Amino acid sequence: MTVLITGATGLVGERLLPRLAEAGFACRVLLRAGKGCPEGIEAVTGDILDPSTLTSAVLGVSAVVHLAAVFRTQDADLIWKSNLDGTRNLIAAVKAHAPDARFIMSSTSHVYNKDNPHPGREDDPVDPQHAYPASKVAAEKELRESGLNWSILRFPFVYGDGDGHLESLPEHVSTWHPAQRMSTIHHRDIAQAVTLALDGAFDRHVVNLADEAPSSIYELAGMAGSRLVSSSEPLANPWYLHVDPSLARSLGFRPSIRTVYQAWQEGLS
């Protein structure tokens, strides 16, 4: 099975690619000019914002794993252009040149409303107010209505494999309530979930991915070597960034790294 991966040099893609290759998938990556490619991996030079480069990228593929996205920037126009227009371009190329391919897209648990009355569920109405999750919701809609065989994986806070994400967390949440809890997932289990999606387990489903227990940012910061200011004030939005992964479990997903504490204790964070 030949799999095209976009965003292969990003936080998730860089760790997913070797795992898929090791599992026996023939991996092809879409790379901008000048980007290096691991040995043994097929590279196609192109960009999701340049439709003319996408035909050669998708020809002959059995599946697409679309990870490319723009997140941490104040440039809302760039976020929308990359996350929505880029996804539209890729969808169009797959429809034209590989219409039977599975199209697997990464999304985010940030799509759920901040005042959700329970952990985010895939059938909850969503109306995110920030550019990144809003652009992801719009891209999800494009894919669901594309006529392709799709699946959408909503990632929570991703960490592990020495990616530095956990260590950088305190600088992004220093003003948050320390009791705010977040769902999490290790890179190893993203690979497991993507493999399930490639095998068809998630066909035409939006699925939340998460491990067994959300952690408070107070605990997560502590694992990263920082201490947040304590507070016993009421927590205004207790379910924010906390997702319900029941659907993924029912479709065969079982996290091998069950909690961040396990990863921390085993030196996997």
Describe the structure.
The chain has 269 residues and is an alpha/beta fold. It has a single domain (2-162, 184-212, 244-258), classed as Rossmann fold, CATH 3.40.50. It is built from 9 helices and 11 strands. Strands 3-2-1-4-5-6-10 form a 7-stranded parallel sheet, with helices on both faces. α1 (13-22) crosses α6, α3 packs parallel to α4 and α5 (165-173) packs across α7 (217-223). The protein starts with a strand and ends with a helix. The model has no long low-confidence stretch (mean pLDDT 96).
Concise overview:
The protein is of the alpha/beta class and 269 residues long. The chain has a single domain, classed as Rossmann fold.
Number of domains: 1
Question: Low-confidence runs (pLDDT<50, min 5 residues)?
Answer: none
**Major beta sheet, strand line-up:** 3-2-1-4-5-6-10
Radius of gyration using CA atoms only: 18 Å
Subunit organisation of the chains? single chain
Average pLDDT works out at: 96
Number of helices: 9
- Taking the alpha carbons of the first and last residues, their distance comes to 31 Å
Just give the CATH class.
Alpha Beta
Q: What general form does the structure show? A: globular
Features:
alpha/beta; Rossmann fold; seven-stranded parallel beta sheet; two-stranded parallel ribbon; globular
List the SSEs and their pairings.
Elements: E1 2-6, H1 13-22, E2 26-31, E3 42-45, H2 54-58, E4 63-66, H3 76-97, E5 102-108, H4 131-144, E6 149-155, E7 157-159, H5 165-173, E8 181-182, E9 184-186, H6 187-198, E10 206-208, E11 215-216, H7 217-223, H8 246-250, H9 260-265
Parallel strand pairs: 1-2, 1-4, 2-3, 4-5, 5-6, 6-10, 7-9
Antiparallel strand pairs: 8-11
Helix pairs in contact: 1-6, 3-4, 5-7
